[in-house]
Amino acid sequence: MRKLFVFVSSTSALADERRHLRDELQATYELYLYEQDRPRRSSPEEHSRAQIEKADVFLGILGGDYGSLFSDADRPRSIVEWEHDVARDIDDLEAMVFVKELPTAERDPRQQAFIDGLTAFRGGLWRQTYLTPTQFARLAHIALERWLGERFTADRDASADRQRRWAGPLGVVAAGVVLVLLGVVLAQGQALSTNAMVGLCMTVTLFVASCFVFHQRL
């Protein structure tokens, strides 16, 4: 099985958090950390968007620094804020936000406004706060493991629901086929050879087995 791909978004000021996260998760997750990427022909915007779009989880770390500005046609914002906007536009991408606890004076007002909007009670993302890089890495690890457990449970429940929905129709079809073949046997009587009888029995057995296998794979 492939490692789950986690896009890590933060300013370079949070280098300690990124390092602790790498040490904590690199054995079990594939992390996208820009500082480990190679030079390439694609633009930073194009490449970052591609990495976010292929990620299983978007993990944002927000401290006091607003970061480098990325001016586009819509509005000026930081690159980190742009990354969060891209991630939130992808409906099936899980987003996890961790905010470092800091005195108000140590947080850029633009960063505070960004955090307030991103984590607003209505329409925002549920966040988790931390104090130290070590604590952050551990909290992120726990959050990812819980998310995996939730996803496994959801997949299992969806599979069970599909099996329940298909159980009735498959049973009806299987019973119908058996009845049709039984009718053929009764109608033909002695006219059926031993080979034909064996063939009919094998056909019924294979069909019922196929229905069972299909049902289990749902």
How is this structure best summarized?
By secondary structure, the chain is of the alpha/beta class.
Describe the structure using short key phrases:
218 residues, alpha/beta, Rossmann fold, 2 domains, five-stranded parallel beta sheet, 6 helices, 15% strand
Word description of this protein:
The protein has helices at 15-25, 44-54, 79-88, 109-118, 133-188, 194-217, and strands at residues 4-9, 29-32, 57-62, 69-71, 76-78, 94-100, 127-130. The chain has 218 residues and is α/β, with parallel strands linked by helices. The chain has 2 domains: 4-131, Rossmann fold (3-Layer(aba) Sandwich), CATH 3.40.50; 158-217. It has a 5-stranded parallel sheet with strand order 2-1-3-6-7, sandwiched between helices. 19% of the residues are buried. The mean pLDDT is 85.
The count of helical stretches stands at 6
The H-level CATH homologous superfamily of the largest domain, spelled out, is Toll/interleukin-1 receptor homology (TIR) domain
General shape: elongated
- What gyration radius follows from the Cα positions, in whole Å? 28 Å
State the CATH topology of the largest domain: Rossmann fold
The structure class reads alpha/beta
Could you give the topology of this structure?
Layout: E1 4-9, H1 15-25, E2 29-32, H2 44-54, E3 57-62, E4 69-71, E5 76-78, H3 79-88, E6 94-100, H4 109-118, E7 127-130, H5 133-188, H6 194-217
Parallel strand pairs: 1-2, 1-3, 3-6, 6-7
Antiparallel strand pairs: 4-5
